[in-house]
């Protein structure tokens, strides 16, 4: 992600990254009828340590009540407010290939505050193809118009690497201020534009590193 380790609002980026996890856990707790929860419960549901849960929530001004814990509904509203989920954000998805289509078909974004309002592609053969109910592939030539007319502020970029910077430039010029980038390239964007890079391959490489570390003592023991 671009920018410093603290957001403009003053929350540390690591906290911001965990808030959606707490929100998801609180939504599940509320669905099962829980009115209150402890930091331990949130820790268990999210995989975050209890100490970090308490620290993160204290940044929001929530300290919980001794012996009772946190009020689930109140905390849910507070986190939703902090991460801007009290309104719906319009998203354009650029690049309707294998990955783009799979993302566009995922029904879970809307319930978490983001709505894909357009899917665009540069390949004329794909135009008009239905991706999901209510979304057909539109022309990348119309990107500027789509961003402006549909009040899009967030883009998902799923084009090949070679096209990504050009697409990002166009998105920013049209008014997009946040980009979720799947193309394996470091985008250059002006100040005020946030980029989150998703690199599943790098995540796998990190796991491979840990696998290697797990297996090497055994190998040493066998050879030694
Ligand atoms: N983050 C990860 O780990 C991860 C995993 C898979 C794929 N990827 C990346 O995601 C991107 C998409 O992968 P894919 O398998 O879906 O590729 P794909 O070739 O199936 O799809 C890419 C789509 O982008 C379209 N496109 C090309 N130039 C464009 C432009 N200028 N404007 C709009 N659309 C344009 C193409 O017509 C095509 O439909 C690639 O950059 C790939 O490397 C990343």
UniProtKB/TrEMBL annotation:
GO molecular function, one term: DNA binding
Keyword Nucleotide-binding assigned: no
InterPro entries: CoA-bd, NAD(P)-bd_dom_sf, Rex_actinobacterial-type, Rex_DNA-bd_C_dom, Tscrpt_rep_Rex, WH-like_DNA-bd_sf, WH_DNA-bd_sf
Domain CoA-binding, residue spans: 84-186
SUPFAM superfamilies named among the record's database cross-references: NAD(P)-binding Rossmann-fold domains (SSF51735), Winged helix' DNA-binding domain (SSF46785)
Claim: Transcription is one of the keywords in the record: yes
Assigned GO CC terms: cytoplasm
Location of the DNA-binding region in this protein: 21-60
Superkingdom of this protein's organism: Bacteria
PANTHER family: REDOX-SENSING TRANSCRIPTIONAL REPRESSOR REX, REDOX-SENSING TRANSCRIPTIONAL REPRESSOR REX 1
Its job: Modulates transcription in response to changes in cellular NADH/NAD(+) redox state.
Subunit structure: Homodimer.
Name used for this protein in its record: Redox-sensing transcriptional repressor Rex
Source organism: Aeromicrobium camelliae
Encoding gene (name): rex
């Amino acid at each position: 992600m671009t920018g410093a380790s603290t957001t403009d609002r003053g929350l540390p980026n690591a906290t911001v990254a965990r808030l959606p996890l707490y929100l998801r856990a609180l939504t599940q707790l509320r669905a099962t009828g829980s009115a209150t929860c402890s930091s331990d419960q949130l820790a268990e549901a999210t995989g975050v340590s209890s100490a970090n849960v308490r620290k993160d929530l204290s940044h929001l001004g929530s300290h919980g009540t001794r012996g009772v814990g946190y009020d689930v509904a109140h905390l849910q509203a507070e986190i939703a407010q902090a991460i801007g989920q009290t309104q719906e954000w319009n998203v354009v998805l650029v690049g309707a290939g294998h990955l783009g289509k799979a993302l566009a078909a995922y029904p879970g974004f809307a319930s978490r505050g983001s709505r894909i309002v357009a899917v665009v592609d540069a390949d004329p053969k794909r135009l008009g193809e239905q991706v999901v109910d209510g979304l057909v592939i539109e022309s990348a030539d119309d990107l500027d118009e789509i961003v402006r007319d549909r009040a899009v502020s967030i883009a998902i970029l799923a084009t090949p690497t070679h096209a990504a910077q050009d697409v990002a430039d166009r998105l920013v010029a049209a008014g997009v201020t946040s980009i979720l980038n799947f193309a394996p390239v470091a985008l250059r964007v002006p100040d005020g534009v946030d980029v989150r890079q998703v690199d599943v391959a790098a995540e796998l490489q990190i796991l491979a590193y840990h696998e290697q570390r797990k297996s090497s003592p055994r190998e040493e023991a066998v050879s030694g």
